[in-house]
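Q: What would this chain look like folded?
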Amino acid sequence: MTAGIEGSCSKKLHRDLGITQETAWQLAHRNRETREREGGSMFTGQVEVDKVCIGSKRTNMSKSKAKPKEPAEAGARRGTVGKSAVAWIGDRYSNRVAAQPISQTDATLLKGFVCDQTAPGVISLTDEPANHRVGVYVRRKARTDRMESFWGHLKRVYQRTFHKFSVKKIVRNVREFAGRHNILLCDTLSMLRLVAIGMARKRVWYQDLIANNGLPSGARKSA
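A: My prediction, written as C-alpha cells:
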C-alpha cells in the first residue's frame, strides 16, 4: 500500500486486512493525503508542461455520459466529454512531477497552475509546436516525452486497478500518483519514512469524505 507503485483499491484492502470496505476506503484516502508535501520546493530550470484527460473511452460510456461530440470534435478519436482534465508539470532532468485537476483546459488556468509551481525565470516547454496528428512528436525542444511515462503509468493503474476516479476525490488520486512517482527510486524504508512525515498534522475524517462538496461522487444510487 505504501511502497507499491500502483496503490490498492479499497475492495482489495478490505479483503487483505479483514476490515470493512468503508474503513478501507477511508484508510486509502488517509494514505493519499500523506503524499501531498506542504511547502514543497518550486520547480527551477527547464520544465515540461502538459495536460491530459482521464476517464472512460467514449465507446464504453453510458448514453447519459457520452454526449454528442461538438462540431470541432467530429471525427476525433479522443475528447474531454465525460472526463476530468489534469494539468501537470515535470522537471526535465530530475523527473519530479506535480499534478492537479483543472475545471477547464483554457490557457488562463494552465498559466496560473504553472506560475504557482515554478520559480521566476523557469523555461516552460510543451509539445504544442509538435503535431501529433501527422506523426511529429518532437520539434527541437518542443516535447514532453520524459514525463509521458508518468501519464502512461497513471492511465494503466486507472484501467487495471481502480477503473474509475471519482470527480469528487480525483484531487487525492492525482496527487497520490505524483507522490509515488517522485519517490520511485527510494528504498522501502525511505518511502515509509516519507509517508510517516506526511502524516504530521493531517487528519481525514470519514464524515468529511462523504460530505457534499458540490461534485459528483460517482457512487451508484440504490434502487
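The longest helix spans residues 145-162.
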